[in-house]
Amino acid sequence: MDTAKAVANSDEASLNQEAIKVEDLHKSFGQLEVLKGVSLTACKGDVVAIIGGSGSGKSTMLRCINFLETPSSGKITIGGELVEMHADGSPSNRRQIERIRTRLAMVFQQFNLWTHRSLLENVIEVPVHVLKVPKSQAIVRAHELLERVGLGDKADTYPAYLSGGQQQRAAIARALAVDPSVMLFDEPTSALDPELVGEVLTVIRDLAAEGRTMLLVTHEMKFAREVANHVVYLYEGRIEEQGPPAEVFGNPKSDRLKQFLSSVA
Ligand code: ADP
Ligand code: MG
């Protein structure tokens, strides 16, 4: 193999390994600059935990990555594909963002299930109506996914009849239904009664163990330490410190991080 080709191939290999790359991301709401230049990379199979105080920009960051918010500037590359940043509403930009969104799946603090639909209907909605998967096939898959999160007998139940933990597990099944390349979790357990947290963490832990790529905003420090292979501490819209969990939790450098960790302990 000649050198140029070898280089091209190794570039390709490194691109394939990068599930998500965020470069110098900025986001303002009017005068308020919430993200002040955030950069991070998650390779395939990485579990990146994002920690930080309330208002530090964690949700805004995830929402920008998913284009639920339009970033003010910066670059976002998903699976090697650079996403056009200034969402100008042009059809090609809209199509790209819609396509990118189907590769990411977000799980919200408040579950966000469709309340007037059964769990099965919730799980098949996007595969059938957006991804155009044949309905019968989507239904088979939905049953498998509900089974997986321990809700095999609840397919026909409406969200209102379920506990918060069950609703969140259903939301995870729904997220999995698009076979996402990256899963985004925004404090998935913080709206739950304490006794229901464990069952949701168990599902997330299993997904991490099977090599799912995820960005996980969480205030469960013990859990972050256990499942993440990289931890990012956000402070007022900037990454104040990041590194492997043993370093970030066991040997924090920044005084702000030390203070944060002692406040949540
Ligand atoms: P975190 O998730 O870390 O608690 P957020 O990303 O939700 O923080 O919010 C960061 C800051 O951005 C907060 O000051 C919040 O009030 C502000 N913010 C978030 N979304 C909006 C919005 N849509 N319009 C105006 N301000 C917003
Ligand atoms: Mg938040």
From TrEMBL:
It is a peripheral membrane protein. GO terms for molecular function: ABC-type amino acid transporter activity; ATP binding; ATP hydrolysis activity. The keyword Signal does not apply. Keywords: ATP-binding, Cell membrane, Membrane, Nucleotide-binding, Transport. It comes from the Bacteria. Residues 20-261 form the ABC transporter domain. It is found in: Cell membrane. One of its GO terms (cellular component) is plasma membrane. PROSITE patterns: ABC_TRANSPORTER_1 (PS00211), ABC_TRANSPORTER_2 (PS50893). Belongs to the ABC transporter superfamily. This is Amino acid ABC transporter ATP-binding protein, PAAT family. It comes from Ruegeria halocynthiae. The lineage of its organism: Bacteria, Pseudomonadati, Pseudomonadota, Alphaproteobacteria, Rhodobacterales.
